[in-house]
Amino acid sequence: MALYSGKYGELLAHVEGDRDCAGLGWSLTRIDDLDGDGHPDLLAGALHRYADVLSGKDLHRIRRIDSRNGYGICDAFASSLDVLGDVDYDCVPDWIVGANEDAMGFDEGYAWVVSGRTGRVLGETCLSSDEGVDACGIGDVDLDGVPDIALATETKFEDQESWYSAYKTGPVKQTRRIRVISGRTWETLWQVDARSLRESTIAASDKK
Ligand SMILES: [Ca+2]
Ligand SMILES: [Ca+2]
Ligand SMILES: [Ca+2]
C-alpha cells in the first residue's frame, strides 16, 4: 500500500503485507484518528488473514486483528471493512470486518464489530450456512442511539451435491440479500432479497 500527498502527489509512505500474504489493501477505508496523533487513520484488510489499523500519517501499524482461523484457512477474512460509529459509548468510532467464506465453498460467513479504542471484538454476527457476508456501517437507522449494520449476503448451497445438481440444469442463479442488523441488539431490523442485488453495499449515511 502507498500513501500519497493530496497536494503534490508525492509518495509519503509505503507498506508491504506480511510474508506469504499479498492481499494487504484488498479492503480499505478511512477512520477517525485512533492513536491521538491528530491524523485520521486507515483500516486495511489482508484477504483471508488480518485487518490492520494503520497510521494515516506514515502507515505504521497501530493494531492488528487476526482472522479467527489464523493463517491456516482461507475464510476471506477482511473481504470487507467499514466504520460503524461509536457502538460502545466510549466516544471512539468502532468498525466492522467481514469474512465472506466463499473461498471455502459451503461454510458460513461471519463479521466482527471491533472496538476502535482497544481492538477488542465487541460482537460477532455468524450467518447461516448458506450465506457469505459483506459488511457495511449504515448509521443509526432505528434511532436508538447505536449505529446499525448492513450485511450483503449471497445465498449458497448447503453442500457440493446440491450445487452440482443446480449447475447441471443451467447457470447457477443465487439469491442475494441485504440484511440490516441492530448494533444494539443484533436483531434483524429488515431484509430484502433479490437476484439483481450486487454482493456489496455502500451506505449513504453520515454514520453518526
Ligand atoms: Ca492517527
Ligand atoms: Ca467505541
Ligand atoms: Ca440503531
Note down, in words, how this protein is organized:
This protein has 208 residues and is mostly beta strands. It has one domain: Methylamine Dehydrogenase, Chain H. It is 4% helix and 40% strand. It has one helix and 14 strands; from the N terminus they run E-E-E-E-E-E-E-E-E-E-E-E-H-E-E. The strands form four sheets. A four-stranded antiparallel β-sheet has the order 3-4-5-6, with no helix packed on it. Strand 13 (176-181) and strand 14 (188-194) form a beta hairpin. It is globular. The relative contact order is 0.12. The site of one calcium ion has 8 residues, from loops.
Order of strands, widest sheet:
3-4-5-6
The separation of the N and C termini measures 28 Å
The total beta strand count reads 14
Please state roughly what percent of the residues sit in beta strands, choosing from under 5%, 5-15%, 15-25%, 25-35%, 35-45% or over 45%: 35-45%
Main sheet: strands, sense, barrel: 4 strands, antiparallel
The overall pLDDT average reads 83
The total of helices stands at: 1
CATH class: Mainly Beta
Shape by Cα distribution: globular
Unreliable spans are none
Structural class computed from helices and strand pairing: mainly beta
What's the CATH H-level homologous superfamily? Integrin alpha, N-terminal
Question: From the alpha-carbon coordinates, what is the Rg to the nearest angstrom?
Answer: 18 Å
CATH architecture: 7 Propeller
CATH T-level topology: Methylamine Dehydrogenase, Chain H
Bound molecules: calcium ion
The level of helicity is under 10%
Q: Secondary-structure blueprint of this entry?
A:
Layout: E1 2-4, E2 11-14, E3 24-31, E4 41-46, E5 50-54, E6 61-66, E7 77-85, E8 94-99, E9 110-114, E10 121-126, E11 134-139, E12 148-154, H1 160-167, E13 176-181, E14 188-194
Antiparallel strand pairs: 1-2, 3-4, 4-5, 5-6, 7-8, 8-9, 9-10, 11-12, 12-13, 13-14
One calcium ion binds at residues 140, 142, 144, 146, 148, 182-184.
